[in-house]
């Protein structure tokens, strides 16, 4: 694993909510710490209601994690563009986050319950 990035199991049960709905809940979430950035909670894709998400055209590249694919959240109240992202084929040093999603905290709520 990169010295720049630390990944560990996120203790407890975590939930992601938006637009009045629970989109997922997991006790298998991961906490990723990267340099001076705030920690990010990654949820296993299997614990997220993926029916609410459509892949967007947005991608970004991180030199430590690889290429991120973004997802729009489709809710009754409208579309939340690029509300989630995933490193579907991350670099080997962070391979634990494959098949996990992280969320834009300005568009959804992520909390430990």
Automatic annotation (TrEMBL):
Gene3D superfamilies: Domain of unknown function (DUF427). Residues 15-104 form the DUF427 domain. InterPro entries: DUF427 (IPR007361), DUF427_sf (IPR038694). It holds the Pfam family NTP_transf_9. It comes from the Bacteria. PANTHER family: BLR5716 PROTEIN (PTHR34310:SF9), DUF427 DOMAIN PROTEIN (AFU_ORTHOLOGUE AFUA_3G02220) (PTHR34310). This is DUF427 domain-containing protein.
């Amino acid at each position: 694993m990169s010295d720049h990035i630390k990944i560990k199991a996120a203790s407890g049960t975590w939930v992601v909510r938006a637009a009045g709905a629970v989109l997922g809940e997991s006790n298998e979430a991961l906490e990723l710490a990267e340099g001076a950035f705030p920690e990010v909670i990654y949820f296993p894709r299997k614990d997220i209601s993926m029916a609410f998400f459509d892949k967007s055209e947005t991608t970004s590249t991180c030199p430590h994690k690889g290429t991120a694919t973004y997802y729009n959240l489709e809710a009754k109240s409208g579309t939340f563009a690029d509300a989630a992202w995933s490193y579907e084929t991350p670099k080997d040093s962070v391979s634990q986050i494959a098949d996990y999603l992280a969320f834009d905290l300005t568009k959804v709520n992520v909390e430990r319950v």
